[in-house]
């Protein structure tokens, strides 16, 4: 895990910033920090750790902290600022919490949590919630999560002015019924393209990465279909009789995924960070594209996609996070 000795910019001439000094809540015992999330503008930072607290820093100065869950908090995600100051957290306690900063709270300057208030708890998971992330703003307040119960879930607040009105809109098994009971999703990343349908890449505990997309049916209903699996070593021949070949993006669990912004490229770029001490960069292309060659082909619902590993960046330790710009 990551320890509290983090070094954000703007620490000043006196050495460590308040963010570094107080990340452990003023205690001599250092808590393991599981996630550090910057807001859209890169000025606010939310930190979560194994002590079950969330801490907010503005320009490296702590402005709020509160006990948010009944177990270690794994991940945080900021909503787009168009929807206000909204933060989602997920935890070992099987809950997703939606937090809102309300500027009209009179006691906000006195309480340690500032103006932050719990808007909604989502308790659909039957096991630890490993990851939570907001969709690009064009989809409204849409939240994806994945859990140790092997499920990916989507929650939505149809009325962005009512943060108590969240509902479960989709739920599917991340491994698509492959029957591997010990394999669970670890992280998810949204397709940031403003012109394409909803798509997710899901990183799994066995090192596989799977592309899913939302499909609209002829009767007007929608469902999620598995498109393809990333494969770092595509099989050149059929496996021996009786042996099932499972494509793997990494040799060990995937800790994080980052889908690069749409910059006018004819293909998508996705980075994956793994316990196997590597970061890999993947190019996903439509098969109809003239430069789509090699790589793993699409599965049910996605014969038009291919994916190929374009770069492998070795590290001296397991890689916990990967991040790209907003474009």
UniProtKB/TrEMBL annotation:
Gene3D superfamilies per UniProt: YVTN repeat-like/Quinoprotein amine dehydrogenase (2.130.10.10)
GO annotation (BP), single: cellular response to amino acid starvation
Pfam families documented for this protein: WD40
Keyword Repeat attributed: yes
Record keywords: Nucleus, Protein transport, Repeat, Transport, WD repeat
Signal peptide: none
Superkingdom assignment: Eukaryota
InterPro entries noted in UniProt: Sec13/Seh1_fam, WD40/YVTN_repeat-like_dom_sf, WD40_repeat_dom_sf, WD40_rpt
Entry keyword Signal: no
Protein name in UniProt: Cytosolic iron-sulfur protein assembly protein CIAO1 homolog
């Amino acid at each position: 895990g990551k320890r509290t000795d983090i070094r954000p910019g703007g620490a000043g001439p006196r050495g460590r910033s308040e963010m570094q000094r107080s990340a452990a809540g003023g205690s001599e015992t250092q808590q393991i920090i599981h996630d550090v999330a910057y807001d859209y503008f890169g000025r606010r930072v939310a930190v979560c750790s194994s002590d079950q607290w969330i801490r907010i820093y503005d320009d490296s100065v702590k402005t709020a902290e509160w006990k948010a869950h009944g177990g270690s908090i794994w991940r945080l995600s900021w909503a787009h600022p168009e929807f206000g100051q909204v933060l989602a957290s997920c935890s070992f306690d099987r809950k997703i919490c939606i937090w809102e900063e309300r500027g009209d709270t009179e006691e906000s300057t006195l309480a340690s949590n500032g103006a932050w208030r719990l808007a909604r708890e989502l308790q659909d998971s039957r096991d630890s919630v490993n990851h939570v992330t907001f969709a690009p703003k064009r989809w409204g307040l849409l939240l994806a999560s994945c859990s140790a119960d092997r499920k990916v879930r989507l929650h939505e607040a149809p009325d962005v002015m009512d943060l108590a009105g969240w509902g479960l809109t989709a739920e599917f098994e991340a491994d698509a019924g492959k029957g591997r009971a010990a394999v669970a999703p670890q992280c998810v990343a949204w397709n940031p393209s403003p012109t394409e349908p909803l798509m997710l890449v899901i990183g799994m505990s066995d090192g596989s990465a799977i592309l899913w997309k939302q499909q609209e049916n002829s009767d007007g209903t929608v469902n999620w279909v598995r498109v393809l699996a990333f494969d770092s070593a595509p099989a050149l021949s059929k496996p021996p009789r009786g042996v099932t070949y499972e494509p793997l993006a990494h040799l060990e669990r995937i800790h994080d995924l980052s889908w690069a912004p749409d910059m006018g490229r004819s293909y998508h770029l996705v980075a994956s960070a793994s316990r196997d001490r590597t970061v890999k960069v993947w190019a996903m292309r439509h098969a109809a594209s003239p430069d789509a060659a090699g790589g793993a082909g699409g599965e049910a619902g996605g014969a038009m996609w291919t994916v190929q590993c374009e770069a492998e960046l070795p590290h001296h330790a397991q890689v916990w996070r990967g991040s790209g710009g907003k474009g």
